[in-house]
Design goal:
The protein has one domain (7-125): Response regulator (Rossmann fold), CATH 3.40.50.2300. 43% of the residues lie in helices and 23% in strands. It has helices spanning 19-29, 41-50, 68-78, 93-102, 114-125; strands spanning 7-15, 33-38, 56-60, 84-88, 106-109. Strand 3, helix 3 (68-78) and strand 4 (84-88) form a beta-alpha-beta unit. Helix 2 packs parallel to helix 3 (68-78). The longest helix has 12 residues, at 114-125.
């Protein structure tokens, strides 16, 4: 990717309990867009309920308190058109199927490749 995308008017909610993954997203996206970080699905649902500025959710699927699958179902009931991108090391076909059934709009496997991340975000954010 030669040119950085301009998502300066967008806000991405990153739902991730792993510190290394959070640092990766911070370093990769902080200069391109607004970021909100939460550590579990419960906080993700609360953020979507209270913050209308969220334009996209990057959802880890395996987390404490409330899984990404559970949180996605709730988020989609609140804001059906809000894109939710599953991001997980659980790259089995049944996990992808379960993510789609929960309402995820797309799926990125960990470790995250920057080009795939940017291509996916561009599809949903423009």
């Amino acid at each position: 990717m030669n040119q950085s995308p301009d998502w300066s008017d967008k806000t991405i909610l990153i739902v991730e309990d792993d510190l290394i993954a959070r640092i990766f997203y911070e370093k990769t996206l902080k200069d391109l867009t607004q970021l909100i970080f939460v550590k579990n699905g419960l906080d993700a649902v609360e953020t979507v309920k209270t913050d209308p500025s969220v334009d996209l959710v990057l959802m880890d699927l395996k987390m404490p308190v409330k899984t990404g699958f559970e949180a996605t179902v709730e988020i989609k009931s609140i804001r059906p058109s809000l894109p939710v991108i599953a991001q997980t090391a659980l790259a089995y076909p049944q996990d992808k199927k379960k993510a789609k059934e929960a309402g995820c709009d797309d799926f990125i496997s960990k470790p995250i490749e920057i080009e795939i991340l940017f291509d996916t975000l561009t599809r949903f954010l423009g």
